[in-house]
Amino acid sequence: MYVILVYDIAKDENGAKAWRRIYSISKQYLHHVQNSVFEGELTESGIVKLRAELKQWIRDDLDSVLLFKSSGSRWLKKEVWGKEDKATSNFL
Amino acid sequence: MYVILVYDIAKDENGAKAWRRIYSISKQYLHHVQNSVFEGELTESGIVKLRAELKQWIRDDLDSVLLFKSSGSRWLKKEVWGKEDKATSNFL
């Protein structure tokens, strides 16, 4: 499954630490393509594992994390408007 | 076509103005679901129009805008981990 992960972490006093943890965990599973955006191929069990790890740092009342799942990368095209992050060029 | 638009606008002296313009233009075409994330149904010509409008404000050397296109919303599922923005509840 091809997934896109986007997150918006509240900037309160614990926000920076949560952001760093969510960023470093996400980087173990997916490719960083933009400030708070990751993409890549994950199995359903990979998604379950990623979610379990991230859940420890997501504050349900403060932080928003969205995971878009496409049944395969062939169903998902990407256009880059503006600067191309080096990281994005070799994915979709 | 179902699209997800994510952007990361450089925070230089013109960044705030660019962000506001990109936000308000994007809102005319798509649903705002997270800080710099929009989603919704768009035709190919709608995408061309959106791009033309946004291009006036995207600084190619500074700003990153990614558009993910899925051939239809049925190929794209969404999971919400953390707080559900009111705006996201009635889309995917």
Automatic annotation (TrEMBL), chains A, B:
Pfam families: CRISPR_Cas2 (PF09827). GO terms for molecular function: endonuclease activity. InterPro entries: CRISPR_associated_Cas2, Virulence_VapD/CRISPR_Cas2. Its EC number is 3.1.-.-. SUPFAM superfamilies: TTP0101/SSO1404-like. Coiled coil: none annotated. Mg(2+) binds at residue 8. Keywords: Antiviral defense, Endonuclease, Hydrolase, Magnesium, Metal-binding, Nuclease. The keyword Iron does not apply. CRISPR (clustered regularly interspaced short palindromic repeat), is an adaptive immune system that provides protection against mobile genetic elements (viruses, transposable elements and conjugative plasmids). CRISPR clusters contain sequences complementary to antecedent mobile elements and target invading nucleic acids. CRISPR clusters are transcribed and processed into CRISPR RNA (crRNA). Functions as a ssRNA-specific endoribonuclease. Involved in the integration of spacer DNA into the CRISPR cassette. Belongs to the CRISPR-associated endoribonuclease Cas2 protein family. NCBIfam families: cas2 (TIGR01573). This is CRISPR-associated endoribonuclease Cas2.
